[in-house]
Amino acid sequence: MPAAHLPFTPELELQLRAWLAEDIGRGDLTAAALAGRPGRAHWLAKAPGVFCGGVLVEPLFRLLDPALRLQLLVADGEPVVAGQRLLELEGGAAALVAGERTALNLAMRLSGIATATAALVAELEGTGVRLADTRKTTPGLRRLEKYAVRCGGGSNHRQGLDDAAMLKENHLAWAGGVEVAIAAVRAHAPWPARVIVEAETAAEAAAAVQAGADGVLLDEFLPAQLRQLVPELRSLAGGRRLVLEASGVQPEQLGDYASSGIDLISTSAPITRSAWLDLSMRFDF
Asked: How many other CB atoms sit within 10 Å of the CB of residue 2?
């Protein structure tokens, strides 16, 4: 699987500046004791997991010290063990101290998501079923949290409401039905946009396929129900590419759902339930 990529955009730089400003405020009061002094440091993993967030460390610290030097010893998405050295830093001591907490907080959060994702992806290995995230993300951190999911081997669902149209119960009721809703979306959305319909019953799923949906999100169906329903929906699609997705799946049920013939399982668990991976920054004297 190719490594996940996170472009460093102007928006991301602004976020890093804001997060540093949140911690540093009007200025680190300890900086006077370190003025003009060089410093070296390294990061260690204090628990096993999947590392994520290393790509943010150098740009973050360079906002404090443009001359900073960094060597990444572990790439994002790689497994780590307790005690493993992750990266090495060399720059102004005041900059290293000022950026330490913000950098670690980001990396621990993202590494926790990548670790949790990797554990679920491992349960689906060999099934051909992909694990996808949801829009249940921390406001302001969506892009980074979804990057962490990719680092853990998962796939991203929609980044936002402008990626694809997912028509849910309220859309269908207010629009006047699935056919009317899909037609309205297709008339206004760019041609590459996909239309997905959430279904809670077999009848709703069938109606969505017959109305031309590109995908159907099958919400809270049991595995036994899906084993019967999935072939019926593919038959209704008549050879047209149809993505069938299961949601409302508990992590311990992944194996049962993977055997039902679906393409995708979406879950918020890696983002909403994961613990931070414990990392530390040690200073070299």
From this structure: 6
Would residue 123 show up in a list of annotated catalytic residues for this protein? no
Is 23 a catalytic site residue? no
Q: What are the structure tokens assigned to 237, written together?
A: 């699609």
For 14, the enclosing helix (H) or strand (E) is: helix 10-24
The catalytically annotated residue of 65, 100, 145, 219 is: 219
CA distances from 155 to 26, 185, 266 (A): 40, 24, 9
> pTM of the entire structure?
0.95
Q: Give the Cα separation of 229 and 257 in Å (integer).
A: 13
Residues 6+ apart with CB under 8 A from 10: none
Catalytic residue among 40, 135, 168, 234: 168
Tens-place pLDDT, residues 98-116: 999 999 999 999 999 999 9
Q: How many CB atoms lie within 10 A of CB 50?
A: 25
The string of pLDDT tens digits covering residues 237-253 is 998 999 999 999 988 89
Pairing type for strands 264-266 and 130-132 reads parallel
The answer to whether 65 is a known catalytic residue is: no
Which of 76, 100, 145, 198 is catalytic? The answer is 198
198 is catalytic: yes
**Cβ-based neighbours of 55, under 8 Å, separated by 6 or more:** 6, 8, 76
Has 13 been annotated as catalytic? no
The Cα–Cα gap between 280 and 82 comes to 11
Query: Pairing state of beta strands 195-199 and 215-219?
Result: parallel
